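Support reply, case 0932

Customer input (verbatim):
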Amino acid sequence: MTKADDAKERLRQELRDYLIVSAYLFVCFAAILFYGAVVRGEAGPGLDVLGLAAAKALILGKFTLLGEAAGIGSRLQAASLAAYIVRKLLLLFLLLIVLTVVEELVLGWIHDRSWAEVLGEHLHKSFLEILASSLLLLLVLTPYVAVTEVSRALGPGVLRRLLAAPPDQTTNRQSVVDPFRIVAKQKHKA
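Our regenerated output:
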């Protein structure tokens, strides 16, 4: 395979990963925004709500993949896969919060607004509202990080094959790898 073929394949894989994470985030954000609209007594999610969900999903999807590309959490030593997932989840969560603040500041600057104005808009929210939004983001990220890391621990394609297999074929527990022992085995090899 030539370098050009490698670059094309890598680009194809990164685009696929971006679309998957963005689609997942869009579904989550659209559901959350729809729920908020219903609670506020609005008729339902309009195009503005879906547009906001799509924009946030695309932006946070890119931020998530930037964190992955930077190897966030990959240098961590953990006693188990579960501990590794929790640490990586928290680091990714913090990265997304920081990058979202930077994004808001840049958008404010583009629209000729001072940083104080931009920060003031967000600081007028109550602590509970900010906490609730942060917890929702953490809850949305949890399955994504867990599934990604379990899939990585099982090996390429194993989780996909396991999920695509008929239920009667997945009941043979001896064929399922224990992902919580994989990290420990990898640590002992190093």
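We compared this against your earlier run and they match. Two observations from our side: The chain has two domains: 1-70, 74-190. The helical segments are 3-39, 47-69, 81-110, 115-123, 127-154, 158-164, 167-170, 179-189. Please reopen the case if you see a mismatch on your end.
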